[in-house]
Amino acid sequence: MVALCSRRNVGFMRSLKRLFVMDLSKEQRNTVERIRRLKKEKNAVILVHNYQKPEIYEIADFIGDSLGLCNAAKKTSADLIVFCGVMFMAESAAILNPTKKVIIPSPDAGCAMADMVNVYKFNEFKKGHPDAAVVAYINSSAEIKALADACCTSSNAAKIVKSLPQKKIIFVPDKNLALYVASQVPEKEIIPWQGYCPVHNFVNKEYLDEVKKEHPNAKVIAHPESKPEILACADHVSSTNNMIDCAKKDPAKEFFVLTECGMIERLNKEVAGKKFYGVCNMCFDMKKNTLELVLRSLETEKTVVKVDKKVADKARKAFEKMFELTGGYL
Questions:
Q1: Which of 27, 63, 73, 105 could pair covalently with 297 via S-S, beta carbons 3.0-4.6 A apart?
Q2: Could you tell me the sign of the dihedral formed by the alpha carbons of 179, 181, 185, 189, in that order?
């Protein structure tokens, strides 16, 4: 679900909002300390996606995008993995760590795009393209990954597709990322599943043109889940983690960032001396994790993320193919 700021509060779709990391309250600081103590006692690691609430950053052992979190989950020596993200990400951690316990503080944190494809319909779709390889974006369920030849993230999707021997590639579930990959790998035929991320898909060129008039000196950084018309106008097309590098390396002092608004929080935190603006487009699922829920999950070691072994084994092969084609975990 996408939360659009109200017309009364920010001039709906006509003004930009700069977001800042808030100071923690006394109660929040106490909760953070309790979490840190429990984490040490239980040899736990807390993995946090970029789009989480800013107070969740305070307890993170690793903050990153889907690829970074995959790598951190694979490499950790912790006994217990606490995943502050959405369910498909926690499933990925469980798939990559079959001998470890993975818990998610908010088990109802889902993904609208991942829900746009199911196994039955996708199997029928595959039958229509028997000579095509399947690349599953990490923003998909374990069951869909189990049907893929390789997984990918937004940062390595083009490389994965280019590296596969097949000329035809079914790309699931994001049609916008599929079109971006097609523009980067024109020698391949990309067959997209018609899913999309509501957070990234709603911004159009008309709105972006208004942004440029309002902030003519701001460079545009867009996530590749955005519409093609947006990517064509962007100064940088980047996964969330790479947005930090873009902002640091580009001499510009102002940036308009087209992704979930939580990323603005992290950019303001990590890139000093520059201004970051974004649409107030919020993924409510990403914001379901709270400090209180993390504390409860550590105390009870629930909710445990479980993936059927047959599904997990097949999905792990798709992950391993991704790692193979990208030369390792990075």
A1: 105
A2: negative
Cα separation, 128 vs 268, in Å, equals 47
Identify the pLDDT of residue 269. Answer: 83
Find residue 171's DSSP bridge partners. 135, 192
Please tell me the distance from the alpha carbon of residue 263 to that of residue 101, in angstroms, as a whole number: 28
Positions in the chain whose pLDDT score sits under 50: 1-21, 330
Residue type, 213: K
Query: How many angstroms separate the CA atoms of 63 and 72, rounded?
Result: 9
Residue 1 CB contacts under 8 Å (≥ 6 apart), including other chains: 112, 198, 283, 284, 285
Helix ranges (DSSP H) in 185-274: 198-201, 205-214, 228-231, 240-249, 262-270
Q: What is the Cα–Cα distance from 263 to 52, expressed in whole angstroms?
A: 8
The answer to whether residues 169 and 190 touch, using CB atoms and an 8 Å cutoff, is: yes
Q: How far apart are CA 128 and CA 54, in angstroms?
A: 45
The torsion angle over the Cα atoms of residues 8, 11, 15 and 21, rounded to 10 degrees, is 20
The pairing of beta strand 2-4 with beta strand 281-283:
antiparallel
Residue 189 pairs with which residues in a beta bridge?
A: 168
Tell me the CATH number for domain 199-283. Answer: 3.40.50.10800
Domain residue limits, the chain = 21-109+287-300, 114-196+307-325, 199-283
Q: What is the pTM (predicted TM-score) of this model?
A: 0.88
Strand, coil or helix: 178: helix
Token output for 151:
């997984």
* CA 89/CA 17 separation, integer angstroms: 28
